Q: What sequence folds into this?
C-alpha cells in the first residue's frame, strides 16, 4: 500500500484541507498523532465507518482506514453471513489492525484495534428484535492505552425513529454499565443532530464534531440533502482535539472515499485521562 506520509504533532499548521467534495469544510491543521503523555494520559485516534458489508471496493476501504492510522475503528455493517469472520479479518489485516470484537455476533457493529491497545474485556450485545425489522446490536469493549482506560461502543441505530430513540437510551445504559470513568461511542445513527435520539446522546455525552470540528462535516452525500448521520461521542472527561470527515488527510484520496462504501468516515483525535 506504499509508505504513509508523515503526520505532524498537534502544533503543526501544515497541510490544511482544501476541498470538501460538496460538504461544509473546517480549515484546520491535521489531527495529532497517537501518543502517550508523561502523566499517563493517551492521545488516540478513533475512526467510525459504515462499510456496507464490504460490498464495494475493499482495497479502497482498506486504504482509507490505513491512512487514518486509527487506534480504534468502530465499524457498522460488518459482514454478517457466509465466512464473515474471514472477510472482516482480511480487512483488518489490510489496514494493519486486528479484530477486537463484533460482526455477526453483534448484528453488524464491530470494533478493530491496533496493537497499542491492551484489551481487558469485550461483549457483543443484541438488542430487542422488532418483528419485520433488522436486528440491531452493540459491539463493546474495555481497553487500555498506557495509563488510560476507556470503554468503547460501536452502534448502528434503527431507521425507525421511535425504536431508534429506545436504542439510544440502551446505548447510554450500556456505556454506564461498562464500569469505566471514560468511554467512547460511535456509529451510524440514521439521523442528524436535530433528531431526538442524536440530541439525547449529545446531552449526556460530548458530540465530538460539535466540540472540535475538523475536516468535513457530512457523512452521507449520496443524495440531497447532505447530512451528518454518523458521529463519535465521548464522556465529559475526554478532551476532543478534533473530529470530522478526513477529507485531504494525508493518504486519503477522494476517489477512495467515494469507492469504499456509501458513507464517509468520521475520524477523531481524543485525549483520554490517565486512571
A:
Amino acid at each position: 500500500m506504499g509508505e504513509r506520509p508523515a503526520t505532524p504533532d498537534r502544533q503543526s499548521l501544515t497541510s490544511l484541507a482544501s476541498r470538501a467534495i460538496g460538504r461544509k469544510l473546517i480549515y484546520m491543521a491535521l489531527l495529532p498523532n497517537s501518543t502517550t503523555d508523561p502523566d499517563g494520559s493517551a492521545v488516540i485516534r478513533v475512526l467510525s465507518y459504515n462499510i456496507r458489508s464490504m460490498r464495494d471496493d475493499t482495497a479502497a476501504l482498506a486504504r482509507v482506514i490505513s491512512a487514518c492510522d486509527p487506534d480504534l475503528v468502530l465499524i457498522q455493517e460488518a459482514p454478517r453471513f457466509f465466512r464473515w469472520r474471514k472477510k472482516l479479518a482480511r480487512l483488518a489485516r489490510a489496514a494493519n489492525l486486528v479484530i477486537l470484537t463484533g460482526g455477526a455476533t453483534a448484528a453488524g457493529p464491530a470494533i478493530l484495534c491496533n496493537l497499542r491497545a491492551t484489551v481487558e474485556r469485550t461483549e457483543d450485545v443484541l438488542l430487542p428484535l422488532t418483528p419485520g425489522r433488522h436486528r440491531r446490536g452493540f459491539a463493546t469493549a474495555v481497553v487500555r492505552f498506557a495509563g488510560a482506560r476507556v470503554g468503547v461502543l460501536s452502534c448502528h441505530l434503527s431507521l425507525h425513529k421511535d425504536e431508534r430513540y429506545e436504542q439510544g437510551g440502551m446505548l447510554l445504559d450500556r456505556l454506564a454499565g461498562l464500569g469505566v470513568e471514560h468511554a467512547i461511542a460511535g456509529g451510524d445513527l440514521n439521523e442528524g443532530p436535530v433528531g431526538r435520539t442524536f440530541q439525547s446522546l449529545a446531552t449526556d455525552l460530548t458530540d465530538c464534531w460539535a466540540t472540535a470540528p475538523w475536516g468535513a462535516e457530512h457523512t452521507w452525500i449520496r443524495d440531497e440533502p447532505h447530512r451528518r448521520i454518523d458521529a463519535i461521542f465521548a464522556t465529559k472527561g475526554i478532551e476532543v482535539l478534533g473530529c470530522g470527515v478526513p477529507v485531504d488527510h494525508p493518504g486519503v484520496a477522494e476517489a477512495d472515499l467515494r469507492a469504499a462504501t456509501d458513507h464517509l468516515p468520521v475520524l477523531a483525535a481524543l485525549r483520554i485521562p490517565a486512571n
